[in-house]
Amino acid sequence: MIPINTVNFKLWQIHTAGVALCIVLTTTIYFNSVYPILRAREDFSLQKSEIEEQRRIASDLSASLGTFKHEIASVQQALEKSPLQLQSADHINQRLAQFTELASEHGLDIQQIQPGQITHDVHYDIVPIHLSGEGSYRTHAAFIHTIHRNFPDTGVSSFKLSGKPGQPNAPASFDLNLMWYTLPTANRKQKN
């Protein structure tokens, strides 16, 4: 006869082996089937959130792009309607003649008028123009005022007016440096 303790011990071993086998099988099934599905679902959820965020950002950028395009169109329309249209620097001789004639109309005696080296920029070029001569303070001031009014594409970069204290009736000497804003070189090449 087999003692009861031995039978209980063998049953206990069988039950323990069965429980261990169930644990091993459950763990194997979990890590080979359930865990990858859960992991894939979590990854899918993260990717879905990222896609929704990217779509929101794309929508915001699209709206901003539309706003910027509208603003650019408005600025271009304003530029086209602007009375200030830059000329080509190729017209330098005409501009020098205009300044000489204007100075003569104001009673200034131009002794020198000379263009300088062109400075290039993306949106415009600058042609410096130096004028020197003689005239009164009033005629000089009126001349600069007329340049400002008649030539909005030209600015005064510097001027120097000097009198002769010993000869109060003698005309004052002046040096005037102007900046004539013209079409950029790249624009002229595209239009030709």
Globular, elongated, flat, extended or rod-shaped: what is the shape? rod-shaped
Structural class: alpha+beta
Largest beta-sheet characterization: 5 strands, antiparallel
Query: What is the rounded distance between the termini?
Result: 119 Å
**CATH architectural label of the largest domain:** 2-Layer Sandwich
Helix and strand sequence:
HHEEEHEEH
Number of helical regions: 4
**How many extended strands?**
5
Low-pLDDT runs of 5+ residues are 187-192
* CATH fourth-tier homologous superfamily of the largest domain: Ribosomal protein S6/Translation elongation factor EF1B
Write down the CATH class of the largest domain. Alpha Beta
**How many structural domains are formed by the residues?**
2
CA radius of gyration is 44 Å
Helix percent band:
55-70%
Strand content: 15-25%
Q: What do you see in this structure?
A:
The chain has 192 residues and is α+β, with helices and mostly antiparallel strands. The chain has 2 domains: 1-82; 89-191, Alpha-Beta Plaits (2-Layer Sandwich). Helices cover 59% and strands 21% of the residues. It has helices spanning 4-81, 92-105, 137-150, 185-191; strands spanning 109-115, 119-120, 125-135, 154-162, 172-182. Strands 1, 2, 3, 4 and 5 form a 5-stranded antiparallel β-sheet that branches. The longest helix is centred in the N-terminal third of the chain and has 78 residues, at 4-81.
